[in-house]
Design goal:
- The complex is a heterodimer.
- Chain A has 2 domains: 73 residues, Beta-grasp domain (Ubiquitin-like (UB roll), Roll), CATH 3.10.20.30; 82 residues, DNA polymerase, domain 1 (Orthogonal Bundle).
- Chain A is 32% helix and 16% strand.
- Chain A contains 5 helices and 5 strands, in the order ββαβββαααα.
- Chain A has a 5-stranded mixed sheet with strand order 2-1-5-3-4, sandwiched between helices.
- Chain B is α+β, with helices and mostly antiparallel strands.
- Chain B folds into 2 domains: 142 residues, Uridine Diphospho-n-acetylenolpyruvylglucosamine Reductase, domain 3, CATH 3.30.465; 97 residues, Enolase-like, domain 1, CATH 3.30.390.
- In chain B, 33% of the residues lie in helices and 25% in strands.
- Chain B has a 5-stranded antiparallel sheet with strand order 3-4-9-5-6.
- The longest helix of chain B is centred in the C-terminal third of the chain and has 19 residues.
- Chain B is globular, with a radius of gyration of 17 Å.
- Classes of the chains: A alpha+beta, B alpha+beta.
- The complex binds flavin-adenine dinucleotide and FE2/S2 (inorganic) cluster (2 copies).
- The site of flavin-adenine dinucleotide (FAD) has 30 residues of chain B, from β1 and α6.
- Flavin-adenine dinucleotide binds next to β1 and α6 of chain B.
Chain lengths: 161, 239
């Protein structure tokens, strides 16, 4: 067993986990944060994307032990914490995904939103090419990506105010 | 077994392709951090992520081709975790960094010695590293000019052929990844570029297809042709 201490969505947590536990499984099974999806489990689809110290990573391709001492933010922690009005307000990327109908089944959506929020934190006014490049690690089997790219553009506008 | 970014090792653990008794996370060791430029070299700590290399002002100023190569690896999530040391230690025949290491005449510093690039990559997934030997940093020679072009597999993003072309004080160096069982220097292209450093000098040239990789994605002849095209594109970008 391994002891892992980290911050998850701003809250300190201390877990005792089997050594081989993946970060995705620790979040979903130990902490009940099932918004982080596991689509492929082979590092391809990006459904499991969370922020580690502010940057998007694939939580299915990390041992939970590698997150020891780090800050993790999942889709559950995005609203409010970074939203424009705080409280329960949706994060601008979440709001833009709703307004632009950037999802169908929604399975890829948490990962897409975390990847897009990671891009906008670094680059507040991305071009279409930069958006596509930033979403290369995320697969969507439903939408054809067009509305997802529109939503990221709209979110950039919302965040610039 | 050392674990750095885990972008290769964690998938290998899941598939039971690697079954180490112990895994030691080396990613936060202070000896493996940092980027320094000076004395005609850019030295990058082994635990530096691909994203950090891509963003680094020092790398972008001294060797923009190296920053661009790092920015083209995998996807953002992979670049935020995967490291230079992990990539060179793994020596995947389709990885990008090994081409830069050879073409930029790099020196690989370990906890035991300094290994010149020419002696480091010894075969498919094989390096000169002894068991337990850790890469601390890689020192790249700053070229006059350099460019890297890869033809990425449309699904995986890995190089079907990637060519790093660099012009140094003592002449050009051309390294090819993705096409053979391991990265190699393409001497014929180097000779052609030393007579004239222009894409035209490479017209009609391609590496010998015998010994190149053939699989469901491409034949050896197709990869040889791609290597010729990527070399010309790289040279054209900086001529
Ligand atoms: C979806 C996906 C796409 C990718 N696309 C590309 C691509 O387009 N191009 C490309 O080049 N790569 C690609 N990669 C591979 C990626 O670049 C890896 O990050 C890299 O190959 C390994 O680095 P790591 O830090 O993750 O190493 P790890 O997975 O942690 O380790 C890999 C191996 O190296 C050893 N090791 C690690 N660090 C050291 C060290 N300092 N000294 C000695 N041994 C060490 C480990 O023991 C292990 O055997 C991709 C990976 C994924 C998952
Ligand atoms: S579940 Fe992690 S990348 Fe698909
Ligand atoms: S909305 Fe169904 S996978 Fe993207």
């Amino acid at each position: 067993m391994t002891k892992v201490s980290m911050t998850v969505n701003g809250r300190p947590v201390a877990l005792e986990l089997e050594d081989r536990t993946l970060l995705a499984d620790a979040l979903r099974d130990a902490l009940g944060l099932t918004g982080t999806h596991v689509g492929c489990d082979t590092s391809q689809c990006g459904c499991c994307t969370v922020h580690l110290d502010g940057r998007p990573v694939k939580s299915c391709t990390m041992l939970a032990a590698q997150a020891d001492g780090r800050a993790v933010v999942t889709i559950e922690g995005l609203a409010g914490s970074e939203g424009p009005t705080g409280g329960d307000a949706l994060h601008p990327v979440q709001q833009a995904f709703t307004e632009c109908h950037a999802l169908q089944c929604g399975f890829c959506t948490p990962g897409m939103i975390m990847a897009a929020a990671g891009l906008l934190a670094e680059n507040p006014a991305p071009t279409e090419d930069e958006i596509v490049h930033a979403l290369e690690g995320n697969l969507c089997r439903c939408t054809g990506y067009v509305n997802i790219v529109s939503a990221v553009k709209r979110a950039a506008g919302l965040m610039r105010g | 077994m050392p674990l750095a970014g885990g972008m290769t090792l964690v998938p290998a653990l899941k598939l039971r392709l690697a079954r180490p008794s112990h895994v030691v996370d080396i990613a936060r060791l202070p000896e493996l951090q940092g980027i320094e430029a000076g004395g005609g070299r850019v030295t990058v700590g082994a635990a530096t992520t691909h994203a950090e290399v891509a963003r680094s002002e020092a790398v972008r100023r001294a060797i923009p081709a190296l920053a661009a190569l790092a920015e083209g690896i995998g996807d953002p999530q992979v670049r935020n975790r995967g490291t230079l040391g992990g990539s060179v230690a793994n020596n995947d025949p389709v990885a990008d960094y090994p081409a830069a290491v050879l073409a930029l005449d790099a020196a690989i510093e370990t906890n035991r010695r300094t290994i010149p690039a020419a002696e480091f990559f010894v075969g498919m997934f094989a390096t000169a590293l002894a068991p337990g030997e850790i890469v601390l940093r890689v020192a790249f020679a700053v070229p006059h000019r350099a460019a890297y072009r890869k033809f990425a597999h449309p699904a995986s993003g890995y190089a079907m052929a990637g060519v790093f072309v660099a012009e140094h004080r003592d002449g050009p160096r051309v390294a090819v990844t993705g096409a053979g069982p391991a990265v190699f220097r393409w001497r014929e292209a180097e000779a052609a570029l030393s007579s004239a450093f222009r894409a035209e000098a490479l017209a009609g040239l391609e590496p010998d297809a015998s010994g190149l990789n053939a699989d469901i994605h491409a034949s050896a002849e197709y990869r040889a042709n791609l290597a010729g095209v990527m070399a010309r594109r790289a040279a054209a970008a900086i001529e």
